[in-house]
């Protein structure tokens, strides 16, 4: 690994100022993604700023409007075990528990989780194959290479990678906000706008600017929260990233769907909302499988599978139906 220095931040404002001034400085929280990238030669920070001692960023607290504020330094395992999260937003707890391993979840922070980089094997390959995310302008080895795990929505010729975070998918379905501290103070970014599609600049995963520090994720109080579910489909039952995943949150009247929120993982460069299906599902009967399938299909008309992942479209439609039924049974 290349040489680097490390220092410990004790004040959020000073951490933001240090990050803003030094292009070669990276924040480090649990280190479970960043250190792997450094070992793989996919990240070369000269300075690491350890943010773990920053005060006030590790809690899970009620907000005045009845929602939750989850600190950026809260550990995945602590958030998954939090009673409020489990009862009011099971989709978040499940998104966390289906991710990584127990040991990793004890180290990994919420901020680091939504900032983690793609698991495209070309991007992580120490032999440095063509990869626009790793080396802008070098090409995309996955476009005509092995792309079974890659995107079916929103990709560009420059990059067909998917975003790997599970909990980001749950947060997308709940329309959470990412609260960010910058030199001008705090701003809230709707999670739908936080991660980017690749376009011609796949090296940029998010809209975060230099210096900005995630301080929290906020979830508003909502009827759909309790009747929610995260379904993850993967090649093995534990310790694996999603082939496809679905976060579903619903509000019902009897067996009819009054409101539906759906987001998917493993299908795009960012958590992917199924807005057409959400509209088409409103008023549908949870027992009318044909109607549910037809409504879900409306979100797949623009799917663009690659050479090795055509199976993802069909798998996704089935996973959405299953997640919807499980969420509906919790209403
Ligand atoms: C073997 C393995 C399996 C895994 N499986 C899964 C899985 O199934 N699902 C899943 O979702 N994840 C999975 N992960 C990823 C894991 O969840 C992430 O590595 C972890 O959440 C990152 O958090 P961290 O605190 O360790 O981040 P770090 O590694 O410390 O940081 C990651 C990035 O975030 C930036 N950062 C950290 N905190 C902040 C902040 N507050 N503000 C701004 N930037 C910040 C850092 O600068 C860095 O760029 C897996 C990881 C491994 C190694
Ligand atoms: S899909 Fe993206 S991350 Fe993977 S090789 Fe292509 S440019 Fe790189």
Automatic annotation (TrEMBL):
Q: Which Gene3D superfamilies does the record associate with it?
A: 3.30.465.10, CO dehydrogenase flavoprotein, C-terminal domain (3.30.390.50), Uridine Diphospho-n-acetylenolpyruvylglucosamine Reductase, domain 2 (3.30.43.10)
Residue intervals of the FAD-binding PCMH-type domain: 1-224
Which superkingdom?
Bacteria
The record's keywords, sorted A to Z, are: Oxidoreductase
Q: What is this protein called?
A: Xanthine dehydrogenase family protein subunit M
